[in-house]
Write a structure and sequence with these properties.
Shape: globular
Radius of gyration: 23 Å
Strand order of the largest sheet: 1-2
Strand content: under 5%
Protein name: Polysaccharide biosynthesis protein C-terminal domain-containing protein
Number of helices: 16
Number of domains: 2
Keywords: Cell membrane, Membrane, Transmembrane, Transmembrane helix
Helix content: over 70%
Organism: Candidatus Woesebacteria bacterium RIFCSPHIGHO2_01_FULL_38_9
Subcellular location: Cell membrane
Structural class: mainly alpha
InterPro entries: Poly_Biosynth_Transport, Polysacc_synth
Length: 436
């Protein structure tokens, strides 16, 4: 009986089906590097997110409201700086993944030199602006002084991690990220218990940045910042590619934050808090499926550079992203109250009827983002106009139509639908053009 079941399972796993003239099987899907790489990134990212959540939970309780407020404000400044630099990571991944072995050392050296200069520049800027930040946020200057070395190390680790992602060394990416968060938690707790309060927590962030830097340097020990960087002759290509990526990154971040900011402006604090809770839950879909795109990007970029077929990788990525998005959406449809109460408590439960609509917005946006990432990996940057227009539509739409929280979400659904339909139309056009 068991053998018969195993034989049937094997036949089912080997049975082929066709999607867009590409043949697949269950075995092909499960054994594909995209699946294993995505699994590593998803598990690693979720563990890092869990540690980050525990960090704020534990450190917040140890510090108390006043000191934790100081720490959170400084961390927010740090977060804003790195959000503005996210586009650089995508550029590094693109050029590292499409390079051959002879070009890698030159690319690594060139980007490392740029990162070193950027880190020093940002550190000097923060040092100059420290009195302003300190007065504006009512925080001791010593807290901001620690941002100077943190930025110097963090910009380099950011580039190193992106370079490893471009090399498709996803295990090393995950290990370095989680080591950073775990060290931040442990060291922060130790220094707070030692009586250093919020300054001690910041000191923990600094040392965890150093630890992450040393781990990444170990993984990239075969590479050095040398004069070989002069051999990298595609610097103009980097900047021409980086400009549309920058606008796409800004527009993507806008789609995440504009609705929350405008709801805070137009609604009372209670309603804004309810909206913020369901927005956070909605983002689980994007960040849960995000690692699939992170794995897909360098794989397709590498194949595109070599002139190899990459359509199966894209289709598998689309299927996996859709499965994750619909899976979370199903949970929100069946268990909206439970989903909210588990993460935010009963005080936020009135947002339950809105959760499914927020989930729909995020599924549409996540699918559109994956397709956009696909085009960027094959150097088709004109499509970034779609996300820029969608972000403008969302902002203007919410400004004009905001009578209820559901209306705000519907505006976001409309803008993300426009985004998804636009990139799908472009995909159809590009596919037809390629065949001709």
């Amino acid at each position: 009986m068991i053998n018969k079941f195993l034989n049937l399972s094997a036949k089912f796993a080997d049975k082929q089906f066709s999607i867009f003239n590409n043949k697949f099987s269950v075995n092909y899907f499960l054994t594909h590097p995209l699946f294993s790489g995505s699994a590593v990134m998803i598990m690693g990212s979720n563990f890092a997110n869990f540690i980050a959540y525990m960090y704020h939970l534990i450190v917040g309780r140890l510090l108390g409201p006043a000191s934790y407020g100081e720490l959170a404000a400084v961390i927010s400044v740090l977060g804003l700086i790195f959000t503005s630099l996210n586009f650089i990571g995508l550029v590094v991944v693109k050029f590292a993944s499409s390079a051959n072995e002879r070009e890698l050392k030159g690319i690594y050296s060139w980007f490392s030199s740029i990162a070193l200069k950027a880190g020093i520049g940002l550190s000097i800027a923060v040092l100059i602006l420290t009195p302003f930040f300190s007065n504006f946020l009512h925080i001791n200057k010593e807290m901001f002084f620690l941002l100077v070395p943190i930025l110097s190390f963090s910009v380099l680790t950011f580039v190193y991690r992106s370079f490893l992602q471009g090399l498709m060394r996803f295990k090393e990416v995950v290990i370095s990220s989680n080591a950073d968060f775990v060290a931040r938690l442990i060291l922060g707790v130790i220094f707070i218990y030692a009586g250093l309060s919020a300054f001690g927590a910041m000191l923990g962030i600094l040392l965890s940045s150093v630890i992450a830097f040393l781990i990444l340097r170990h993984y990239l020990r075969d590479y050095r910042i040398l004069k070989i960087s002069k051999k990298f002759s595609n610097s103009k290509q980097v900047f021409s590619y980086a400009i549309p990526i920058f606008f796409a990154t800004v527009a993507t971040n806008s789609m995440f934050s504009t609705d929350v900011v405008l709801v805070k402006h137009f609604f009372n604090s209670h309603d804004a808090g309810i909206y913020a809770s369901i927005s956070t839950l909605g983002k689980i879909i994007f960040f849960g499926a995000g690692p699939v795109g992170a794995v897909m990007f360098p794989m397709i970029s590498k194949r595109h550079a070599k002139g190899q077929n990459y359509s199966k990788i894209f289709i598998l990525s689309l299927m996996l992203t859709l499965a994750i998005g619909l899976g979370v959406l199903f949970i929100y449809l069946i268990f909206p109250r439970l989903s909210i109460s588990l993460l935010f408590g009963e005080k936020f439960i009135e947002g339950a009827p809105l959760l499914i609509w927020m989930g729909i917005f995020m599924v549409l946006f996540t699918l559109g983002s994956l397709i956009l990432s696909y085009f960027l990996s094959i150097e088709k940057t004109k499509v970034t106009l779609a996300i820029v227009v969608a972000a403008l539509m969302q902002g203007i739409g919410i400004w004009l139509f905001h009578d209820t929280l559901l209306t705000v979400i519907n505006v976001s659904i409309a803008s993300s639908s426009f985004f998804l339909v636009s990139v799908l139309i472009y995909f159809g056009y590009a596919t037809k053009k390629k065949r001709n």
